[in-house]
Amino acid sequence: MIHDVAVIGAGIVGSAVARELSGHRVSVALLEARDDVGDGTSKANTAILHTGFDATPGTLESELVRRGYRLLSDYAQLTGIPVEHTGALLVAWDQEQLDALAGLRDKAEANGYHRCAIVDAAEVYRQVPHLGPGALGGLTVPDESIICTWTVNLALATDAVNRGTTLLTGHRVESVSRRGDLTTLGTTGGTVRARWVVNAAGLGADKVDALFGHRRFTVTPRRGELIVYDKLARALVDKIVLPVPTSRGKGVLVSPTIYGNVMLGPTSEDLTDRSATATSETGFEFLLEKGRVLMPELLAEEVTATYAGLRAAIDHPDYLIDTDAEQHYLLVGGIRSTGLTSGMAVAEHVRDQLLSAGMELATRTDLPDPPAMPNLGEAFPRPYQQADRIAADPAYGRIVCFCERVTEGEVRDACHSVIPPTTLEGLRRRTRVMNGRCQAFFCGAEVQALLEGNRS
Ligand SMILES: Cc1cc2nc3c(=O)[nH]c(=O)nc-3n(C[C@H](O)[C@H](O)[C@H](O)COP(=O)(O)OP(=O)(O)OC[C@H]3O[C@@H](n4cnc5c(N)ncnc54)[C@H](O)[C@@H]3O)c2cc1C
């Protein structure tokens, strides 16, 4: 089969692009090296829906984060992706940082975000009473929000498939050849032919770009490690507590998570190994040192889990989205630390670039409704709390994961969904199962049996 367009990479960006393009009269294939969607950087980030207040004004990143915030907020309402508009407080700990707050507020204004306010130390402690001693002042960012990154990726990919996208997992692109109007992609899952190709391969984007003959950038995996604290810590903090950003990034924050925990992180460490998602002792020591200053009481709480994600940092100061009209090829590179927020806006930008490069994209009028996603958010009703659902279907009353209160009905639904999980990890991202205190110690065997039972 020949596709009009092949999108490489089923993270948030590739899934958003496939969804956007399949809203037009074209056939789309979404190629993913791994066995599931959302199994790369998009599964392991800090899950903040950014306003873009601290982006570099005038960059493509600033424009697309701002637009992405709006698009994803609206899409979340339509699909049930959980979002909590907690707001953020950026805290200054020394005079230099205090002096920087006015510049940050001006930067926010230049980015089109007008709701930041500088507050004094008393207000900082009123808003975050458990903050460590020594804060001198702060900057409020009322619209920064927390979101479920897993559901975002899954919703976009599910929507794409519902709109007709052919999802090809287990298809790592390893070679490219072009003859006439057609590109042939040699993949680990077989050959795929397409008239246009979009490279949204994240950490692998430079390698795929090289297959098209380009040598224009290198991806450096920038590891971010995080510590997730127990739900009992949630009372300590109800908003995102940010440091003053530096040239290395946004710094270490303390934030509630959408699952009802509190997280501390991330680190920022350039590596060479693009698969190095293990956590490290030095990373923890660094985070604990920061945490001791930010919120000493947090460190007395139990740690539920730790994880690390790799940002696709590149040697270019902005997103690198570029069309090679001759080869009918478009690169989406360097979506390092804001792609969860900007993904849907990146997809719109890709659509416009393809149109300008001559691709025919006629809008469809027969689109299916956006998918209704299961709620994984702690702040919203979940099946075990809904008597009417349990009465109608007792499987929603049988809890299999007690730490996270996940029911047999939710596991069953995930296994029979449009993009079912292939592994326990995939099931975790769809239900929250095994994501709590016991980390599968008590429920792992039963969950495995349920996964297998539902698949057979
Ligand atoms: C620690 C950390 C914190 C972050 N915090 C935030 C945040 O709070 N808010 C925010 O907006 N963003 C945040 N980000 C950034 C965000 O997570 C990323 O920008 C986003 O997930 C990138 O999505 P993607 O689709 O480009 O990449 P990915 O999710 O990595 O998807 C790329 C996909 O391409 C596949 N692939 C690679 N090579 C090939 C190939 N040759 N053939 C086929 N498939 C291939 C991979 O398997 C992968 O699934 C954070 C990132 C990190 C690491």
TrEMBL record:
Signal peptide span: none
Family annotation (Gene3D superfamilies): BFD-like [2Fe-2S]-binding domain (1.10.10.1100), D-Amino Acid Oxidase, subunit A, domain 2 (3.30.9.10), FAD/NAD(P)-binding domain (3.50.50.60)
Residues of the BFD-like [2Fe-2S]-binding domain: 399-452
Pfam families listed in its UniProt record: DAO, Fer2_BFD
Domain FAD dependent oxidoreductase: 4-352
Classification via InterPro entries: BFD-like_2Fe2S-bd_dom, BFD-like_2Fe2S-bd_dom_sf, FAD-dep_OxRdtase, FAD/NAD-bd_sf, G3P_Oxidase/Oxidoreductase
Domain of life: Bacteria
Protein name: FAD/NAD(P)-binding oxidoreductase
Species, as recorded: Mycolicibacterium murale
